[in-house]
């Protein structure tokens, strides 16, 4: 139960204080009774749990795309699958799996971390912001960044949290020196240093860029020197894309991929992972890896909001992972990487064919996005009517900036379109940009 996790020895964890809201949260009183459930022969007249014999499902059978069957007919599992999520930090077999998996991939160099299962990274982001930020605190955000996270910050900004952009450098990620400079400007201006920096480490949304390991270490060192916590949102970690047909033949290798968690000696990283981009977003399952007091704060806020990720999703995901084992998961991830890699290459090849001289871009090596910057276009929002008329839609770059100001870029998502549609969509974009370049501005009809 949540309370058991909180009593673990994670003292002296993250070098931060909780927000006013998180400090005021109390553990749910009802949940303090939960440990009595395991007393033999206890007569349970306490909780509002429906009994197992009223649940509708007697058996759940899933068939994977490879034709493997996953059958849940064990009464205990069927009960867990249909009951409330009684453990706020997450369904314990899944939590153990996630801990082993996190240890294997990131091997965090501090021993105080634990995981909380969430309803995906978006849910986790909102919970972490709430746990750490009080009016007057400063958060630094990569600019451009994921607009959903920025919109979660808007109500906090209205309550007095300061949201300060850190412009991405020419390599498409923030750089240690500019982060240090912004942190010091913040200190001079507000009298307090930033408390938290929000970063998307791999396959950044929207630029598609990943931070090299050396850059991660440099940024981590700046965060140490300035005593900033790091919120690492990394849903694209697994989507490492083979850059050529030859590279497709190699086995799964995530060892070369960097993460802040893997260098976190002093528990200042709160890492968000998600099943959304490598299993299915409809599961609504992610996990946070962090130390106390953030871990406890997330457990309490989970108890008092979602009560935990869906038991149904958690049990089914766990059964799938159990049945696949390590080999099946690696096979699935490698297949996904090949498929997305081909689409990324198709998007880049279409750009070579149709956008040469009209836009610049970097061939994506991770994630789902390609960031295109149009020549001679002040604000890509102005091109939207023309693009819609040509029947192609991309996201204007302004959507990703904190001030939503003019941007000459677009975000293209190559993951969901077919290779044929990528070719056609980029061709249509090229037609619009060519027209703009010939006439000197967007043509509204
Ligand atoms: C950077 C980033 N964080 C979080 C999310 C949402 O993740 P989840 O589906 O786990 O809530 C996305 C994309 O949808 C994203 O690009």
From TrEMBL:
InterPro entries noted in UniProt: Aminotransferase_I/II_large, Class-I_PLP-dep_aminotransf, PyrdxlP-dep_Trfase, PyrdxlP-dep_Trfase_major
Gene Ontology MF terms in the entry: pyridoxal phosphate binding; transaminase activity
Keywords: Aminotransferase, Pyridoxal phosphate, Transferase
Record carries keyword Transferase: yes
Required cofactor(s): pyridoxal 5'-phosphate
Occurrences of domain Aminotransferase class I/classII large (ranges): 115-429
Name used for this protein in its record: Kynurenine/2-aminoadipate aminotransferase
Organism encoding this protein: Tetraselmis sp. GSL018
């Amino acid at each position: 139960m949540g309370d058991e996790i909180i009593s673990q020895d994670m003292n002296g964890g993250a070098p931060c204080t909780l927000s006013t809201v998180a400090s005021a949260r109390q553990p749910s009183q009802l949940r303090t009774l939960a440990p009595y459930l395991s007393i033999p022969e206890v007569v349970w007249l306490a909780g509002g749990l429906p009994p197992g014999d009223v649940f509708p499902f007697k058996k759940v059978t899933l068939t994977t795309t490879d034709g493997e069957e996953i059958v849940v007919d064990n009464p205990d599992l069927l009960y867990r699958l249909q009951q409330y999520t009684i453990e706020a930090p997450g369904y314990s077999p899944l939590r153990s799996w996630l801990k082993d998996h996190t240890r294997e991939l990131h091997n965090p160099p501090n021993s105080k971390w634990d995981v909380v299962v969430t309803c995906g990274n978006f849910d986790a982001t909102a919970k972490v912001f709430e746990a750490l930020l009080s009016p007057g605190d400063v958060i630094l955000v990569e600019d451009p960044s994921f607009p959903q996270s920025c919109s979660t910050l808007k109500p906090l900004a209205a309550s007095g949290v300061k949201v300060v952009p850190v412009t991405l450098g020419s390599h498409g990620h923030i750089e240690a020196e500019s982060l240090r400079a912004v942190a010091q400007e913040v200190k001079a201006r507000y009298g307090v240093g930033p408390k938290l920096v929000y970063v998307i480490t791999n396959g950044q949304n929207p630029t598609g860029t990943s931070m090299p390991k050396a850059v991660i270490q440099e940024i981590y060192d700046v965060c140490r020197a300035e005593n900033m916590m790091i919120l690492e949102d990394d849903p694209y970690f697994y989507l490492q894309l083979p850059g050529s047909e030859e590279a497709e033949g190699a086995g799964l290798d995530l060892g070369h991929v960097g993460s802040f968690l893997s260098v976190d000696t002093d528990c200042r990283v709160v890492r968000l992972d998600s099943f959304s981009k490598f299993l299915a977003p409809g599961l609504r399952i992610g996990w946070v890896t962090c130390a106390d007091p953030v871990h406890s704060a997330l457990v309490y806020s989970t108890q008092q909001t979602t009560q935990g990720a869906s038991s149904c999703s958690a049990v089914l995901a766990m059964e799938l992972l159990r049945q696949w084992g390590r080999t099946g998961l690696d096979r699935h991830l490698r297949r996904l990487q090949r498929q997305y890699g081909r689409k990324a290459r198709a998007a880049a090849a279409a750009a070579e064919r149709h956008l040469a001289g009209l836009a610049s871009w970097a061939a994506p090596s991770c994630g789902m996005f390609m960031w295109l910057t149009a020549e001679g276009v002040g604000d890509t929002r102005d091109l939207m009517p023309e693009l819609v008329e040509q029947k192609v839609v991309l996201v204007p770059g302004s959507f990703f900036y904190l001030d939503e100001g003019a941007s000459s870029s677009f975000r293209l998502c190559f993951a969901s379109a077919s290779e044929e549609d990528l070719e056609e969509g980029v061709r249509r974009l090229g037609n619009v940009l060519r027209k703009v370049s010939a006439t000197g501005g967007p043509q509204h009809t």
